[in-house]
Amino acid sequence: MTDSAPTAPAPSPSPSVRTSDRFVAYVHQVCASTQARAALRRGLGLPVERCTYMHRYLVPWLRDHDDQHYGDVRRAYYAVAALIAARPRSARDTTPDQDTPMPWYERPNLGASLGQAVAKGVLKETSAESALHLMARQSSDAIHPGLPALVRQLLSGGIPIDWAVLLEDLTWWNRSRDRIATRWLESYFRTASTTNPALADSAEENDR
User: Fold this and answer.
1) Residue 45, by phi and psi: left (phi above 0), alpha (psi -120 to 50) or beta?
2) Nearest Cα residue to 83 out of 29, 44, 38
3) Interval 98-152: pLDDT, tens
4) How far apart are CA 77 and CA 26, in angstroms?
C-alpha cells in the first residue's frame, strides 16, 4: 500500500510570514508522503516544462499564493521543491522555522552556506569561490542544473540551507543578478575561515 499526498491544507500561518516561508513549510508537509517526495524529486535540475509529476502538488499552491506570470518565479518554486524533496536522509529531520525573529537580510543565503562549508572543511576554498564566481556570471537557466549536486554536498556535510532565502534569490536572479551575487559573495567572505589574502598572495609569488 502506498501513501498519498496530504489532502488537507496546512494551518493558516500568521499574515507576517513571508510567502516563501509558507511555501517551504508546505513542501516539507508534502514530503511526509514518500510518493509525493519521489514525484517532487524527479524535477531536480529540470525546467518546469519537464516536471510533469510535480504539477499535481505545486500548481494548486501557486494558484492560491503567488504570481506565476514570470517563468523565473515558477522555475524557482519548482527547483526549491525538488531540492527539498531530494535531501539526504540525514537532513530530513530538520523543519523550517517560520517565526524566526532574524531580519530577512540577515538570514543565511547560499554564499553564507558555502562559507560555512569552507569553515567546517566540507568544501575547499577554491571550489567554493569558483562556484560562486561562476554563478555570478550565469543566468538562472545555467545555474539550476548545477544546484542539485552543490546542495547535496552541503547538506551531506551538515551545512544548513535557508530554503526560503534561496527561493527568493532564484526568483529574482535574472532581474537582479548583480545585487544578489554581490550579497552571496559578501556573505561567503564574512563566513568562511579563509586564509589571510596577503599571505596567500605572498605564497603564490614564492611558488612562481
Assistant:
1) left
2) 44
3) 556 677 788 999 999 999 999 999 999 999 999 999 999 999 999 999 999 999 9
4) 12
